[in-house]
Amino acid sequence: MDTTSRLLMLLEVVEQGSFAKAAEIRNIDRSVISKQISRLEDELGVRLLNRTTRSFSLTAAGAEMIKKAGELRELLGETVRMAENYHLEPRGVLKITSSTLIGRRYLQPVLNDFQKRFPQVEVELRLDDRLVDIVSEGFDLAFRVGEPKDSSLIARKIARNRLLILAAPEFIETYGMPKTMEDLAQLPAASYASNSIRVEGIDYFNSKGEQCEQKIKSVFRANDAEALLMKTLSGTTYFVAPAFIIGDEITQGKLVPLLTDVKLMEFSAMYAVYPHRDLPVRTRLFFDAVREHLGKDKPIWENGIPNFEQMY
Fold first, then answer.
1. Would you tell me which of 105, 109, 184, 208 could form a disulfide with 178, CB atoms 3.0–4.6 Å apart?
2. Is Amino-acid biosynthesis given among the entry's keywords (predicted)?
3. With pLDDT > 90 as the criterion, what percentage of the chain qualifies?
């Protein structure tokens, strides 16, 4: 391993916050990373890290080296992307991350067709509902619901993602059809809840165009949209659902939209996120293929919601 590789390894350790996490990403033993960082310090003749048994901190020299390592990674990335753009045929590894639902339902069909067209492109698809660090973990593209907060990343909206209120016919038979938001608030709901987000109400606009929130009576919470959908299909709750999780449940009569005359606030759109504006050919072609598949004006998931343009 040369000095450049060791500098990039040091950068990964600092970005991940531990030797163990960096080792996990590289699929190597922690002791290998520790040994290589020690060799880097010997080569440079300066101490880069102050280490304890459980943590580390950067020395002044280490902080400067990290800045240089970041610049080096950027330069190497630009060089590789420039070279790849001269290839007549896309090739190399395309590394993508997304939530599990988006990956399985919307990216997998595109990937299957993409690799038939471009067999020299290898694909690594990482399905993970946590927000990964796409720069330090080396991803070319990330597909996310909601615009990322990291301003250093490039984010492009690729599809809208509206909300609708859904219940199974069995639910309506049990509780009746709600006529107002106040009626709905008395009924059992399924709602999203995670360590960082907890849905407690429904945001909508009243007849005066004023933004309002109606508290809901949640009896089932989960951090997975498909689990919430399955609960709703059981007929025991209603669910304020983002449209992208809907398949053919409405057209088959398994779910019924409620209070369709209420103007709901639009849910977070779907974005493609990438670390550089100058995309390699394989990444740009896949991005274009996903946009084409999802639909540029009307998202593909709205095809399973009849008359959705007139709702909410």
1. 184
2. no
3. 76
CB 193 within 8 A of CB 222: yes
Mean pLDDT confidence for 103-113: 96
Residue 24: CB atoms within 10 A of its CB come to: 12
Q: Quickly list DSSP for 62-82.
A: HHHHHHHHHHHHHHHHHHHHH
The answer to whether 110 touches 289, Cβ cutoff 8 Å, is: yes
Q: Are strands 270-274 and 141-145 parallel, antiparallel or unpaired?
A: antiparallel
If you average pLDDT over every residue of the chain, what do you get?
A: 92
Structure tokens at 14: 């600092």
Residue 36 half-sphere exposure toward CB, CA atoms < 13 A: 22
Token duo for residue 17? 């916050």
The contacts of residue 171 (CB under 8 Å, 6+ apart) are: 232, 235, 236, 237, 238
Summarize pLDDT for 32-78 with one digit per residue, the tens: 999 999 999 999 999 999 988 778 999 999 999 999 999 999 888 87
- SS (HEC) of 137-172: CCCCEEEEECCCCCCCCEEEEEECCCEEEEECHHHH
